[in-house]
Write a sequence for this structure.
């Protein structure tokens, strides 16, 4: 007898905003009942009394990730019906198919974007693509189970996770990682 696995396999899409109306876009998707994710980080801000405060702000002000619980056609229609200029990221200028982010990859990306984690760097999509590294699985420590690319930056090792639109790197010990290149499933 097989057990039903409640593992969510619903893919996500990255949506680029053509304005700085991220808050309005979040409200729009929430109103439509769609799950969304915006990578956030803490920024030091000087307030009017000259006190430094830690404020949670979006990493990228024109990018939002949406879980695709509706058909592609319905999502395109929702985007057209909004009063916010936005578009789903596609593979390239010539290949207009949407960049689908698998559920597992998005879950790992969300974990790595936790604003409480320190020693993290955010990269643009181009910067992330240029990083050279080997695909690895973290076997030990707090990042156990995450996969990504092991890259070196400023004499430190990082686990790089790329998604359409951006990348995130977390400090990791290279001794906690095992190569995925030789594995065959």
């Amino acid at each position: 007898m097989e057990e039903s696995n409640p593992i969510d396999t619903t893919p996500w899409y990255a949506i680029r905003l053509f304005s700085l109306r991220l808050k309005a876009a979040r409200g729009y998707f929430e109103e439509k009942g769609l799950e969304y994710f915006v990578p956030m980080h803490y920024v030091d801000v000087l307030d009017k009394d000259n006190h430094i405060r830690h404020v949670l702000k979006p990493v990228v002000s024109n990018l939002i990730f949406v879980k695709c619980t509706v058909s592609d056609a319905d999502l395109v229609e929702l985007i057209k019906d909004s009063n916010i200029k936005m578009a789903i990221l596609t593979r390239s200028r010539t290949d207009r198919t949407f960049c689908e982010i698998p559920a597992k990859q998005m879950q790992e990306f969300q974990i790595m974007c936790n604003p409480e984690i320190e020693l993290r760097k955010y990269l643009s999509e181009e910067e992330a693509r240029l990083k050279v590294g080997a695909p690895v699985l973290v076997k030990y420590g707090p990042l156990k189970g995450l996969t990504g690319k092991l890259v070196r930056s400023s004499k430190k090792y990082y686990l790089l996770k790329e998604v359409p639109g951006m990348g995130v790197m977390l400090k990791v010990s290279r001794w906690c990682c095992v190569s995925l290149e030789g594995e065959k499933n």
